[in-house]
Design goal:
RNase_H-like_dom_plant; Nucleotidyltransferase, domain 5; RNaseH-like_sf; five-stranded mixed β-sheet; RNA-DNA hybrid ribonuclease activity; 8 helices; alpha/beta; 5 strands; 2 domains; 227 residues
Length: 227
């Protein structure tokens, strides 16, 4: 019977499936199988090679399950490149805002793109800032500029789209997800929104905000301020 144990352990050690998918401890396997054989002999039961093999494979599966539980799960989150920007419902207009921040120079390019419910381009605005603290502050400034631009055009129905989810959470849900240093910018934006009868703030993925992203980067590199 111990010969069968040695054969099974050797087979499990060389078998590609357990070796590849679970870190099977051969010494622990041998100990477990030997104890199993002794237990069966003690109970005056005849241990067939098939039964021992089945028990061994069950133990290998158990070890594999333990290894799977112990290994940390790494979840990768990517923008869905197949998602496309959708125009707003009539009579709303949409302003997409984005910022491009350079941490080495502190320069920030801001871009705003205005489109109607048919998806037609209606205009754009760009600005360049110096001395911006971080990328979050840059995105908050871009959102505030979008609100001010909408108010200056006396829009009554506008959707403000940003690819920083914290802004949407702060504006629509009052969630404390923005750094306190940048809250004043969004509080000013909220005060300004009181002059717009119908507005919405939406988070969109970066893939949907690509035109504003490209324009913001161009603006930062060339230091363009234009409306």
């Amino acid at each position: 019977m111990l010969l069968h144990v040695s054969i099974i352990v050797h087979a499990l050690q060389d078998c590609p499936k357990p070796h590849d998918h679970a870190a099977v401890n051969v010494a622990e396997m041998r100990k477990h199988l030997t104890a199993l054989v002794k237990l069966l002999t003690f109970q005056n039961k005849k241990a067939s090679p098939e039964l021992v093999a089945r028990k061994a494979m069950s133990f290998a599966t158990y070890i594999e399950g333990l290894n799977a539980k112990q290994q940390p799960r790494v979840v990768m989150i990517h923008d869905n490149i197949h998602v496309h920007w959708k125009p707003p419902a009539s009579p709303y207009l949409t302003i997409n805002c984005d910022a491009s921040f350079d941490k080495h120079t502190g320069l920030t390019g801001i871009s705003l793109i205005l489109r109607d419910f048919a998806g037609k381009w209606r205009g754009c605005l760009t600005k360049c800032y110096a001395g911006v603290k971080d990328s979050e502050q840059a995105e908050c400034l871009a959102f505030f500029e979008a609100v001010k631009w909408s108010r200056s055009m006396q829009q009554t129905h506008v959707v403000l789209e940003t690819d920083l989810q914290g802004i949407e959470s702060y504006i629509t849900k009052h969630a404390p997800v923005i750094s306190w240093e940048n809250e004043d910018i969004l509080l000013d934006a909220i005060e300004c929104l009181k002059n717009i009868p119908h507005w919405e703030c939406r988070f969109i993925s970066r893939s949907c905000n690509k035109p504003a992203d490209i324009l913001a980067k161009y603006n930062r590199r060339n230091r363009v301020t234009r409306d």
